[in-house]
Amino acid sequence: MSRMRTYRIEAVILKRQDLGEADRLLTVLAPDRGKLRLVGKGIRKPTSRKAGHLELFTHANLLVARGRSLDLITQAEAVQTFRGLRDDLTRTTHAYYVAELVDQFATEDTENVLLFRLLLDALCQIETARRLDVLMRAFELHVLAAAGYRPQLHTCPRCRRPLTPVVNLISRAEGGVLCPRCGETDRTARPITVNGLKVLRFLQAEPLAAADRLNLSPEVRGELEQIMRAILEYTLERQLRSTAFLDLVRRQDDVRRLAQDDARRLAAESA
Ligand SMILES: [Zn+2]
What we know:
Number of domains: 2
Strand content: 15-25%
CATH superfamily of the largest domain: Recombination protein O, C-terminal domain
Order of helices and strands: EEEEEHHHHEEHEHHHH
CATH architecture of the largest domain: Up-down Bundle
CATH topology of the largest domain: de novo design (two linked rop proteins)
Strand order of the largest sheet: 1-2-3-5-4
Distance between the termini: 47 Å
Structural class: alpha+beta
Number of helices: 9
Radius of gyration: 20 Å
Shape: elongated
Bound molecules: zinc ion
Number of strands: 8
Low-confidence stretches: none
C-alpha cells in the first residue's frame, strides 16, 4: 500500500518555535489526527504568503507534504483568525494558557474531535468573555473530560455513595470529590465548600459560554482556582508554565512590561 505524498488537515496552531533562519516548527491540533508537529518553510520571511494563515491560535485548512522526519506545510488557508485575542494582552495570555493545556493533554495520532471542538469554542469565548477566570475553570473541567480524566463530582469514588451537601473533600489522587468519611484518610484531599462544588457541577454540565452567567464571590473564585490547579497539576504531573504566567499577568506592573515586550515583538515580526 503506497502512502499519499500529501494530505489535507483542518488544524489550530497551538505553538510556534523558530527553526533555522526563516522557518518555523508548528505544533498543531487536528480533529482526526490529534497533535502534530509540522514545518512551515520560509514563513518568517516578509514575503511569505502562508505566514498570515499560520499565526498562533489560527484555525486553518492545511495541505501537508510528507517529509523524511517532519512533514511540511505547503498550503495554508485561515478559516478563523480570532483577531479579538491578539489586540488584548489579557485575552492573549488566556489563549496561551488554553493552547498549552491542550498541548499537554493532546496525544499524537489520536482522533479527538471533542478536544478540537473544545479548543475552538474556548478561543471563541476568550474573545468576548467578561468573566475570564470562570471561563478558565469551565475549560479546565472540559479539557479534563475530553482527555479522559473527567472529575467525579456527584458520588464518592471510594464508597460509591452520593455526596451530600456538606463540606466534602476534593482528592487529587482520586480525581474527584470524596465524602467526609473517606476523605479523612486521603492526605492529598482538601475541603471543598458546598457552594464551590455546586459551581463545579454547573460548569462541568454546561457549555463554556455558561461561565459568563455566573456572578461569583472572590472567595469562591479563589477556592475553585486552587482546586482546579491542584487537580490539573496532579494530572499533568508537572507545573504548568502558563499558570505561573497567568499569576504574573495579574500584577499590573508586569502587565505593562509584558504589553511593551509583546508590542515590540509584534512590531519586529511585522517589520
Ligand atoms: Zn465515601
